[in-house]
Each structure stands twice: as C-alpha cells, then as structure tokens.
Write a structure and sequence with these properties.
Order of helices and strands: EHEEEEHEEEH
CATH superfamily: 2,3-Dihydroxybiphenyl 1,2-Dioxygenase, domain 1
Strand order of the largest sheet: 1-4-3-2
Shape: globular
Radius of gyration: 16 Å
CATH architecture: Roll
Distance between the termini: 19 Å
Oligomer: single chain
Largest sheet: 4 strands, mixed
CATH topology: 2,3-Dihydroxybiphenyl 1,2-Dioxygenase, domain 1
Number of domains: 1
Number of strands: 8
CATH class: Alpha Beta
Length: 133
C-alpha cells in the first residue's frame, strides 16, 4: 500500500526555487542535499521535491504537471500578498464553481496555482469524509 509520496519539480536554480517555495509561499524546507535535491513540505503533508535539471530532464515544461496549493486565507488576500513579493500571476482569478484558482509559475515556468473551495463544497466534502468513517 502506498503511504506517501512526493511531487518532483525540475528546477534550473536550486537557491531561487527554494526561495520561492519557502520565503514567498511559506512552505518548510525539510531537507537539502546541496544542489542535488531539496524537500519542501506544506503543513497538510504535501511534499515537493526539487531536483536540478539535466539534458534528460529540462526545467519548465509548462502544461505537463501543475501543483495546486490550498489556502487558509481568502484567495484575493493571498494573491495580493504574493504580488507584493514579486510573484506574477497569469491572468485574473478564475471562477470554476466550486473552486476558484489563481495561476502562476515558479521561476522556471512550472505551473502552480492557489485554490479556494466554495463554502458549500467545503461543507459537502467535510460531511462526505464523516460519512466514510
């Protein structure tokens, strides 16, 4: 049985990538092995592995994978805070009920997004979780 995992992101500059994920997005640097590997962890358990690019694994293949981040603050507030820190978003906040998302990228162009679920959907998901126990 699978007990965990990691989403690996190929990066061109380890220091720059770690800065985005830790200083700007507020995630925790769990491990770093020079410029060969870094593990970044979100409070909910999401683990992102940063790995240097190579000829076999180039950085920034937009569209092949995206990482979504859940928020503990309103989406607009998070977007404004990150914009002030230099994060560039790709267009306006998208409303795709029951979720709203704000698209951006890491320094290599890997696709990232912030997400906010509607209150109704959060209640539905919480009830479904209770019912499954």
């Amino acid at each position: 049985m699978i007990t965990g995992g990691v989403a690996t992101v190929i990066v061109s500059d380890m220091n720059r990538a770690i800065r985005l994920y830790t200083e700007l997005l507020g995630l925790k640097l769990e491990q770093r092995f020079g410029n060969e590997w870094a593990s970044i962890k979100a409070p909910s358990g999401l683990v992102i592995g940063l790995h240097p690019m190579s000829s076999k694994s180039p950085a920034g293949r937009s569209g092949s994978i995206s990482i979504g981040f859940e928020l503990d603050e309103p989406l607009e507030q998070a977007v404004q805070r990150l914009k002030k820190q230099g994060v560039e978003f790709r267009g306006p906040i998208l409303d795709d009920d029951p979720v709203r998302i704000a698209l951006f990228g890491d320094p290599d162009g890997n696709d990232l997004y912030l997400s906010e679920l509607s209150a109704d959907y959060k209640s539905f998901a919480a009830q479904a979780k209770r019912d499954s126990v």
